[in-house]
Amino acid sequence: MDSQHDSAPASRPPESSRSQTTLRVNGKPHTLTVDHRRVLLDLLREDLELAGAKKGCDHGQCGACTVLVDGRRVNSCLLFAVALDGCEITTVEGLAGDGEELHPVQRAFLDRDAFQCGYCTPGQICSAVGALAEAAAGHPSHVTDPAAPSGEPVALDREEIRERLSGNLCRCGAYPRIADAVEDVIP
To answer: What pLDDT does 12 receive?
Structure first.
């Protein structure tokens, strides 16, 4: 057998391609040695056993993997975990905190029956939480009135909600009830 093929199995990368990374996930610190190629979604699901965020398209186009990183919504299938060292990650499992009360957006989704199969629901909920925070912080969307005062909270009407959640797909078509649920929690 040729000696150039007697290397370590491909499943275990060399130590030079792994780094110790600390992430604060749902309020708890986790320090792991992570392959530089490992995306946040796989780390959450496989290493931390948080199965809320789903692998949908694996290309950042469906939003099923949406989580919050330092309060901003992201597609976890596109982010390398090592690049997030020191960041605060919030998944759908962590939205309610340590209490037994659901987050208001989670409660609104249940009250409005804003899901059918439920596959996209964790991503939809995290995206809605992020969208509400972005609007409250004054971040405009594509449909925000250009005359709106810069840096002030953006009023969320149905068009704003639909635009801000447009990166999250629902194959079942629960969009009207999702928008209803988000409208229910607008401060």
So the answer is: 66
* pLDDT at 3 (0 to 100): 38
Q: Model-level pTM?
A: 0.89
150: exposed, middle or buried (C-beta count within 10 Å: 0-12, 13-18, 19+)? exposed
Helix axes 104-112, 175-184, angle to 10 degrees: 130
- Evaluate the CA torsion angle 152, 158, 159, 160 in order and state its sign: positive
- Would you state the structure tokens that stand for residue 25, as one six-digit string? 């996930």
Strand partners, 72: 69
Helical segments of the chain, H only: 40-42, 104-112, 121-136, 158-164, 175-184
Q: Show the beta-strand stretches assigned E in 28-148.
A: 28-35, 66-69, 72-75, 88-90
Q: At a CB cut-off of 8 Å and minimum separation 6, what does 134 contact?
A: 72, 73, 154, 164
pLDDT tens across 4-43, in order?
434 344 566 666 899 999 999 999 999 999 999 999 999 9
Angle, to 10 degrees, between the axis of helix 104-112 and the axis of helix 121-136? Answer: 130
Query: Which among 185, 175, 43, 48 is positioned nearest to 121, based on CA atoms?
Result: 175
